[in-house]
C-alpha cells in the first residue's frame, strides 16, 4: 500500500514538472519568434515617409533598390520599359551604378541605348538613368525615355539639312547666271538667254519658299477653326484652272466626273491646295497628249460617310520601293525629272498633312508604265456637325509634325486596289 502511494506521488510530481517545463518552453518559443532578427531587418526595408507618394506622381520610371539589390518599389513605367523582371533590376549597367552609389553616396547619371523589349526590331530604346542614395540603405533609380526626343531632333536636323540643300541650288544658280550676264553684257542674245534662266531659277526659289510656308501653316494651324462646308465641284474646278496652262502646253486632257452635290468640311484654302497639288503632279509627270482624270464619289465608312477624290494619270508610274517614301518631305521619285518640272518635293507632304488634319487620309495606287491614282478621302460635310468638328480633326487619321520624315512607318496607308475608272 505504501509502495503504491509512493509511486503515485512520484508520477504526479513528474507530470507537474513536465507540464511546467512544456509551458516555459512554449513561452520562450513565442518570445523568440516575436523578436526581430538580423535577416528580417534586411529583407523588409521601409521607404522613408512621403517617398511612396512622390514616386507615384513622377513622370520618370522609378525603381528603389535595397542593400541586396532587390526591388523594393518600382513604377508601372519601369515594368513597361523592361527595367524590372522577377523582382530584380534587369539592366546590368544601371545595377552597377546603383552599387557604386550605395558604396560612396555619389549621384550618377548616364545615357544608355537599350534593346526594345518584345518588338523584334533592331532600333534601340534611348534612356537617361540617374541614381541617387535614398536614406542609409536604399538607392533610387530614375529613368527617362529619350527615344521620342531623339527622333524629333533627328527629323528636325534632316529637315534643316534638306531645306539648306534645296535653297542652295537655285540661289547658287542665280549667282552664276548673274555673273554670266555681266560677262556677256555686249552680247544681247546671251543676256536674253541667261536672263530667261534666271527667271526660271527665281520662280523655282519662290515656289520652294511658298511651299515651305504652306507646309508650316498646315502643320501648325488648326484647319477646323475656320472650317466651313466646301463644295467638291468648286475645289475640282479650282484645281483644274490652276493646271490648265501647263496641261494645254503638253496637250493633256483634263476631265472630271461625279463631283455634283458633294461637300466636305474643312478649311477651303488648305483643301484647294491639297487637291491642286495632286492635279499638278499628275500633269507634270504625264507624257504629252495623255489624259488626267478627277473622279469623286461618296463611300460608306463606320465613322460616317466619306468623300473620295481620285486623281488618275497615265504617267510613268511609281515603283513599290518609291511608294513607301513619296510622302516624305523633299523625296523625289526621279530627282532629275522633278527639277526639270520645277518640283520641290514638298507637294505630297502638304497633301498628307492636310488630309490628316481634316480627319482623312491620302493613298496611292500605281504601276510602273501604267500611271498612278492618288485618292484623297475626307469626311462629308453633311455628316459633320459643329460639335464634332474637333473630334474629327484629332481622330485616328491625324499625325504629328515629325511623322513624315523617315521611312514607311511615317507615311500614310497605301491603297492596294486597282485605280478607279475615270469618268469622261
UniProtKB/TrEMBL annotation:
<dbReference type="Pfam" id="PF00512">
    <property type="entry name" value="HisKA"/>
</dbReference>
<feature type="domain" description="Histidine kinase">
    <location>
        <begin position="162"/>
        <end position="382"/>
    </location>
</feature>
<keyword id="KW-0902">Two-component regulatory system</keyword>
<keyword id="KW-1133">Transmembrane helix</keyword>
<keyword id="KW-0547">Nucleotide-binding</keyword>
<keyword id="KW-0812">Transmembrane</keyword>
<dbReference type="GO" id="GO:0016036">
    <property type="term" value="P:cellular response to phosphate starvation"/>
</dbReference>
<dbReference type="InterPro" id="IPR004358">
    <property type="entry name" value="Sig_transdc_His_kin-like_C"/>
</dbReference>
<keyword id="KW-0067">ATP-binding</keyword>
<feature type="transmembrane region" description="Helical">
    <location>
        <begin position="6"/>
        <end position="26"/>
    </location>
</feature>
<dbReference type="GO" id="GO:0004721">
    <property type="term" value="F:phosphoprotein phosphatase activity"/>
</dbReference>
<keyword id="KW-0808">Transferase</keyword>
<dbReference type="GO" id="GO:0005524">
    <property type="term" value="F:ATP binding"/>
</dbReference>
<keyword id="KW-0418">Kinase</keyword>
<feature type="region of interest" description="Disordered">
    <location>
        <begin position="379"/>
        <end position="424"/>
    </location>
</feature>
<keyword id="KW-1003">Cell membrane</keyword>
<dbReference type="InterPro" id="IPR003661">
    <property type="entry name" value="HisK_dim/P_dom"/>
</dbReference>
<keyword id="KW-0472">Membrane</keyword>
<dbReference type="GO" id="GO:0005886">
    <property type="term" value="C:plasma membrane"/>
</dbReference>
<dbReference type="InterPro" id="IPR036890">
    <property type="entry name" value="HATPase_C_sf"/>
</dbReference>
<feature type="compositionally biased region" description="Polar residues">
    <location>
        <begin position="384"/>
        <end position="395"/>
    </location>
</feature>
<keyword id="KW-0597">Phosphoprotein</keyword>
<dbReference type="Pfam" id="PF02518">
    <property type="entry name" value="HATPase_c"/>
</dbReference>
<protein>
    <recommendedName>
        <fullName>Sensor-like histidine kinase SenX3</fullName>
        <ecNumber>2.7.13.3</ecNumber>
    </recommendedName>
</protein>
<dbReference type="GO" id="GO:0000155">
    <property type="term" value="F:phosphorelay sensor kinase activity"/>
</dbReference>
<dbReference type="InterPro" id="IPR003594">
    <property type="entry name" value="HATPase_dom"/>
</dbReference>
<dbReference type="InterPro" id="IPR050351">
    <property type="entry name" value="BphY/WalK/GraS-like"/>
</dbReference>
<dbReference type="InterPro" id="IPR005467">
    <property type="entry name" value="His_kinase_dom"/>
</dbReference>
<dbReference type="InterPro" id="IPR036097">
    <property type="entry name" value="HisK_dim/P_sf"/>
</dbReference>
